[in-house]
């Protein structure tokens, strides 16, 4: 039995058998393979020179057309330039990873990478289900000192660990187990930045803890900017000294600028400038990797109602539908990315909407999830695919800067069991019935570790393609 289970068997009941099979998704398998994403970023030669000799212009066009119709298994995008990654020309460009040259790496390791590439060549890694897996988590519960209390369900007294017994498995392919040492080797000398809301912060802390687990001398990980600075400046950074890399988080819940001011009577006013990107205290446009997200703050009451809140230039909208405001904000973000980020240097990712699971009310009106102990097992019980994500996909398809879309929406829809609920605080007295529960964020370790595993698979392929071509 795994050491993890040995450690906690005496105090926590994790022997419960959950043998149900999660049903196979009825959505289509996407032809947008990660292999059709990575080469575009790193090649300075022509597309013709990038492609294997056996791939004719006709077959390439056919593949692009097929892939364009499957940006996501949940969306239908009709733009003539529909493309998960796009270039500055009028034509979509989806590139395939060339055959890897033989290197001096360990033969077994090389074969493993070849197997990964072959398996992902026609697989949508975001279309799958959660399977039981009793292997150890990427990092042990309670072991990472970098977690917010709000995400640290184990330290906050959650009595079960069943939510750690599942691993995401795409239909038709295998994703590699997260390898922190390999990830750090690929991040050597680089800066990685997460920009967005607290769900992106969930993913950021998951990655930092996963990388910390693989570092032998953990004292060589430093907080460049810590909790105190974050509260005032919205910036938090860790530096892995031995690898000369930093993993940063920039708070920007809307990606566009939120203003707070007071009128002559002293009444507080808030406005969301849909035409202005939020300017952080620290520049990040030249980072090597940027992962953006936005979504949950758009569902808050003041945002959702949209009354005298959204502003463009001097115009304040008396009433604006939130989806229209979201679209305007995303276009502001997209134009900023296209104007300020060098796509040949910086890899840009955008994280999809992470599902919430409030029952019998919203977060501030008695909604709860503390009784959930198993994932959703019936696809018909999943919430509809959010319109906001269809809007995001449409915007990305028109950008000149290549963007990797991390479509985590459906995979999180299943996991009603993985939220902090009443275990968002270490104070046991705050876990009485009727308190506000957290059914939006995720326990760590937990579901966001799988997001980073999918990110790792994507980055692993693109990194090896870069190494091969160099």
From TrEMBL:
Trichome birefringence-like N-terminal domain: residues covered: 122-174
Keywords: Membrane, Signal-anchor, Transmembrane, Transmembrane helix
GO CC term, one of those recorded: membrane
Domain spans labelled Trichome birefringence-like C-terminal: 175-457
Subcellular location, principal: membrane
Membrane topology summary: Single-pass membrane protein
Compartment(s) of residence: Membrane
PANTHER family hit by this protein: PROTEIN TRICHOME BIREFRINGENCE-LIKE 4, PROTEIN TRICHOME BIREFRINGENCE-LIKE 9-RELATED
Family: Belongs to the PC-esterase family. TBL subfamily.
Protein's name in the database: Protein trichome birefringence-like 4 isoform X1
Species for this entry: Populus alba x Populus x berolinensis
